[in-house]
Design goal:
Layout (H helix, E strand, L loop, with lengths): L6 E6 L5 H14 L7 E5 L3 H13 L10 E4 H12 L4 H6 L3 H13 L3 H8 L3 E5 L6 H13 L5 E6 L22 H8 L5 E5 L8 H16 L6 H12 L2 E5 L2 H11 L5 E4 L2 H13 L5 E3 L9 H7 L6 E3 H14 L9 H11 L7 E3 H9 L18 E4 L8 E9 L11 H18 L2 E10 L5 E2 L5 E4 L4 E4 L18 H10 L5 E8 L5 E6 L1 E2 L5 E2 L2 E4 L2 H14 L5 E3 L2 E14 L2 H4 L6 H4 L1 E8 L3 E6 L7
Parallel strand pairs: 1-5, 1-6, 2-3, 2-4, 4-5, 7-14, 8-12, 8-13, 9-12, 13-14
Antiparallel strand pairs: 10-11, 15-16, 16-17, 17-26, 18-19, 18-24, 19-22, 20-21, 23-26, 24-25
Helix pairs in contact: 1-2, 3-5, 5-7, 7-8, 9-10, 9-17, 10-17, 11-12
């Protein structure tokens, strides 16, 4: 190992153990006497954060003390710095900026050499940046400024793989991102110190000879490519030739049937575009194939035991004894909320995140604030949306993940990738090739290649996917990050009853319908179809879709009906309840809900998804199509 203060740039391909190298580096530093709290790990994705800390503990002789290493995503670290060192008041911070704007503001604080921020950064003795090839734009600005603020004795380790850089130009919607200014390119001219370059080439992810060949052949095509003409086709062809099974072009119905036959709950099914995931998920839900989702702009699912345990607990602190007693009471009422959870591990987790001033107590006020963040600590969150079954996701969202069996669904190539191009367009073509390289290298034992025909979709200004189905029908994405109003059901007279209904739904995928309610000012209520033990089917309201969803529904209405002759049908079917999450309430939000949630500031809320048909009816008794 190099010295604690060395600056290293480590290039490592997929499956060569980048994350393991990062963990071993931290373990070495801790064992050399560097205080864990003075080591900072920054990762591009939330995916890697949860597992890094446990792996570091396994490697380090120091054991449990290594858990106090600071680990964060770029976005969360920027947010924490801004909250800690910006002069803006907290309500203003929590109320306005997107993460990009927040990062920009944090960059300004560095450039202004804010004294407390500089002093804070000077305390660190080692900085590790993982997945650096995907750090571009304003996030690259932030890392460059952080490098310049470190003490002279502070070491830096940056881990990257240029062959997996897929966030400079492309997105999972197929649009052009073009944030520009990648961190790796800028290090050469803007880093305050030179980096020693190192390379890890040994492949650990798989021992399957076909996969080893695929990893090597696709990487060779990626690294040696100089001509855009046919580049993406060549990458796809290598994947098809080297994979364990090529099942040909599949419809979304075929994919659902394939998953039903395979019965592999750990399988990873990767699509190029978000819309493809929506279509496939819709068909799977329709035929009862349990599955999980992984792509951008999905709601964060915070573990439901938190909301059920503390939703009616209104104290500011909780001791271990009180926690154990409360766990026993709430577990007896609804054991499904605690399925797969360990009481002692749950206590250790919240104690680490929100320790109170008194020994062995948890500060629930702080814990509520953590849950109320737009991006709560990853340790409190479920890794995917849904409980069991194969994971359907985009290639972009699969970065850092792997599975024994991966199904890579590759669409037919667009004309834009078939000819020669120049400049930025050429860079975009090469990046498109890297996207399929990333997808093809997620497998440990078996890669299944499949094709699909691209279905034409459109996007609203918000990014919501929709598809026109004629003059009076359209499919519309339901289930984006802000689609469910987190507060409305907590203000209802029967809010406690709704919580008891929601907790019984934990771990299940259930049919719901979205109903426009005239008696509630045309809010869109979520209605669950629930068959009781007495055999009677009931239809309780469990939540409400948000104003932002209703705004998009109005936008779709305007595009479908420019002449104003139609109105939306009152009911949207084929929506699915896929998760129950814990929501935390800000100080302002607490005034809008009923007790006990106005005091506890924690509760359960539904998460839904679907790609249902929205029907528009002719006004004044006109015909219905």
């Amino acid at each position: 190992m190099d010295s604690v203060g060395s600056w290293q740039l480590v290039i490592a391909g997929p499956g060569t153990g980048k994350s393991a190298a990062a963990c071993q580096r931290v373990a070495y530093l801790v064992d050399q006497g560097v205080p864990p709290g003075r080591i900072l790990i920054i990762s591009f994705t939330r995916t890697a954060i949860a597992e890094l800390r446990d792996r570091i503990v396994l490697y380090a002789v120091a054991g449990e003390s290594a858990k106090s290493v600071r680990i964060s995503t770029i976005d969360s670290h920027a947010w924490n710095l801004r909250v800690g060192f910006d002069d803006e008041s907290l309500p203003k911070i929590f109320g306005k900026d997107s993460y990009d704007l927040s990062i920009s503001r944090t960059v300004e604080l560095f450039r202004q050499q804010q004294s407390d921020l500089c002093e804070f950064m000077n305390r660190f003795e080692h900085l590790i940046v993982d997945e650096a090839q995907d750090v571009v734009g304003v996030r690259a600005d932030l890392i460059i400024e952080m490098l310049g603020s470190l003490a002279e004795t502070c070491g830096v380790t940056i881990l990257a793989d240029p062959a997996q850089a897929i966030y400079d130009f492309t997105t999972e919607d197929g649009a052009s991102a073009k944030e520009g200014g990648s961190l790796l390119a800028r290090l050469e001219t803007e880093s305050p110190r030179l980096f020693t370059r190192r390379r890890i080439s040994r492949l650990y992810r798989t021992e399957n000879s076909e996969l080893v060949e695929l990893f090597l052949r696709t990487r060779k095509e990626i690294e040696l490519a100089s001509n855009t003409a046919g580049h993406v086709a060549r990458v796809q062809e290598v994947i098809r030739e080297s994979c364990g099974e090529d099942i040909g072009v599949m419809t979304y119905e075929n994919i659902a049937e394939f998953l039903t036959r395979r019965q592999d709950g750990s399988m990873l099914v990767l699509f190029r575009h978000r819309a493809d995931v929506l279509f496939a998920s819709s068909y799977c839900s329709h035929v009862g194939v349990e599955h999980r989702l992984r792509m951008s702009d999905l709601p964060v699912s915070v573990r439901p035991w938190l909301g059920w345990l503390f939703g009616e607990y209104c104290q500011a602190f909780v001791s271990k004894e009180e926690f154990d007693k409360l766990w026993g009471v709430r577990d007896a009422l609804a054991p499904m909320a605690f399925r797969g959870e360990s009481r002692d591990q749950a206590w250790d987790l919240i104690l680490r995140l929100a320790a109170g001033k008194r020994p062995e107590t948890v500060d629930l006020v702080h814990l509520r604030r953590l849950v109320a963040r737009a991006r709560p600590p990853v340790e409190l969150c479920c890794p995917d949306l849904g409980v069991e079954g194969p994971i359907l996701g985009t290639i972009h969202a699969s970065k850092g993940r792997e599975a024994d069996t991966v199904v890579l669904v590759m669409p037919s190539l667009h004309e834009r990738y078939s000819g020669e191009t120049d400049g930025a367009d050429a860079a975009e073509v090469f990046e498109e090739g890297r996207v399929y390289y990333v997808g093809g290298t997620r497998a440990r034992k078996m890669l299944v290649a499949a094709g699909n025909k691209t279905t034409f979709v459109k996007y609203l200004d918000s990014g919501r996917v929709y598809r026109s189905l004629g003059p009076t029908k359209a499919q519309m994405e339901v289930g984006r990050r802000s689609d469910v109003d987190p507060l409305s059901h907590l203000a209802w007279n029967n809010s406690l009853d709704v919580q008891r209904i929601l907790v019984t739904c934990v771990g299940n995928t259930l049919n719901v319908k979205a109903q426009i309610s005239a008696e509630h000012d045309y809010a869109v209520r979520l209605i669950l179809e629930q068959k009781g033990a007495d055999g009677v089917t009931r239809y309780p309201e469990i939540g409400q879709l948000s104003q932002s969803f209703q705004h998009d529904l109005s936008k779709l209405w305007s595009r479908t009906d420019p002449l104003g002759k139609l109105r939306p049908a009152p009911t949207i079917h084929h929506v699915y309840l896929v998760a129950i999450t814990t929501v935390g309430l800000s100080e302002e939000q607490r005034g809008a809900v009923r007790p006990p949630f106005s005091q506890s500031a924690l509760a359960l809320a539904p998460i839904v998804k679907g790609f249902p048909m929205v029907q528009f009816l002719y006004r004044r008794g006109g015909r219905k199509t």
